[in-house]
Design goal:
Length: 393
């Protein structure tokens, strides 16, 4: 692989940074992973501006509203937007990252024409309806049912940990259509209008005090058969393709790098026992370790992107990037809490909270990072079997 970006890629990176400088408030400091919670109007405005430039779906083919830009340009975009915490970039990523691409592969012409333009134009938000109370890592054990009834399917069951389910227009739903088939072979994928009768969304407020997750209940919800994506009972294989889109991002190292820079600045400006924290050898050592790990994570992500640009399938490599990146997120948060000391436990709103409680919130929210989108245990299993060729235990 090349250990540098092309001149075109670096020019694009400069354009992105200029866009951030021009469009975001001068005092913008990010706001974490879910800025839409604190400024929904700004989130919608920024997302529309990104869509108008064609950046939201830049990697899509032109006939579907994209720009057919390269995988590496997409990686540069994701890295810069995440580093700067641009609102609207993460919201509905599922629609851009896997709903749209999977529809291009497995959807009908009617499905493509109905759903792809609104995604590309930032007019329709999606949520992903996979996990259930009893089906997380073993997703193929899901029990939400879809029973054929004439021209409809009737959905009954429950989903959990549904990100943005409370603001989503549509849902990307995995349900069991054949309860007697082996668990991987009886699942189908559907597109669900979240305003359908019988859909109930209940908030889940996490321990960081944020509402991003939800429970979703289905009580005899009717879904037209035209909303079935691909073949009935073959949804697992389409779903697996979609998960590969999710696991190949560069956002982990980008957000960790921004956090580390914040911590370095804090250590330089804060004195303890009459000396700046930055002169404490333990603090310096911890910051240096995190810096090295951030660069490792960054290059693992670059490798995944490069492999995709060469039409290779980075299956185990994507899991390596996801595993290392999410565990890095927790390490950076833990390092931050160590450096901030006891006051680091104070939340936003307290006048004594250092960095406005940002590290405290990150410490709490990062707990789920090694669970969401496939646990670390699952990633290690993928690396062992698909990457190293090891047998099943």
């Amino acid at each position: 692989m090349e250990f540098k970006f092309s001149l075109e890629d670096e020019t694009f990176r400069r354009d992105l940074r200029q866009f951030v400088k021009d469009e975001l408030p001068s005092d913008w400091e990010g706001g974490g992973r879910w800025p839409e919670e604190t400024d929904w109007d700004l989130t919608r405005e920024m997302r529309k501006k990104l869509a108008d430039k064609g950046w939201l779906t830049m990697h899509w083919p032109e006939e579907y509203g994209g720009q057919a830009r390269s995988i590496m340009e997409q990686t540069v975009y994701r890295e810069e937007m995440t580093y700067w915490g641009v609102p609207g970039t993460d919201l509905g990523t599922g629609a851009i990252g896997w709903v749209g691409p999977v529809l291009m592969i497995s959807g009908t012409e009617e499905q493509k024409s109905e759903h792809l333009p609104p995604i590309a134009n930032a007019e329709r938000y999606w949520c992903t309806l996979y996990s259930e109370p009893g089906s997380g890592s073993d997703l193929a054990s899901l029990q939400t049912s879809a029973v054929r009834d004439g021209d409809d399917y009737i959905i009954n069951g429950q989903k959990i940990w549904t990100s943005s389910g409370h603001i989503a227009d549509w849902g990307w739903l995995a349900a069991r259509t054949d309860p007697d088939a082996p668990k991987h072979r009886g699942i189908s994928l559907f597109m669900l209008d979240m305003k359908s009768q019988g859909v109930t969304v209940r908030p889940i407020v996490n321990m960081a005090g944020s509402h991003e997750f939800n429970e979703v209940y289905f009580d005899n919800v009717r879904v037209p058969k035209g909303n079935l994506v691909g073949e009935e009972n073959r949804g697992w294989y389409t779903l697996a393709v979609a998960l590969d889109f999710e696991r190949s991002g560069v956002g982990y190292s980008a957000s960790a790098r921004r956090t580390l820079e914040t911590l370095v600045k804090y250590a330089k400006e804060t004195e303890r026992n009459g000396k700046p924290l930055s002169e404490d050898p333990i603090v310096r050592h911890k910051l240096a370790e995190r810096k090295i790990e951030i660069e490792v994570s960054r290059w693992l992500s670059y490798q995944v992107a490069w492999m995709q640009s060469q039409d290779m399938v980075p299956n185990a490599e994507a899991s390596m990037s996801k595993l290392f990146g999410t565990e890095l997120t927790q390490k950076v948060a833990s390092t931050g809490m160590d450096i901030l000391g006891m006051t680091g436990q104070l939340s936003k709103g307290s006048k004594w909270a250092p960095l406005q409680g940002y590290i405290q919130r990150l410490s709490l929210s990062s707990v789920s990072s090694t669970i969401a989108a496939g646990t670390s245990e699952i990633q290690r299993d993928i690396i062992a079997r698909r990457g190293l060729g090891l047998p099943r235990a």
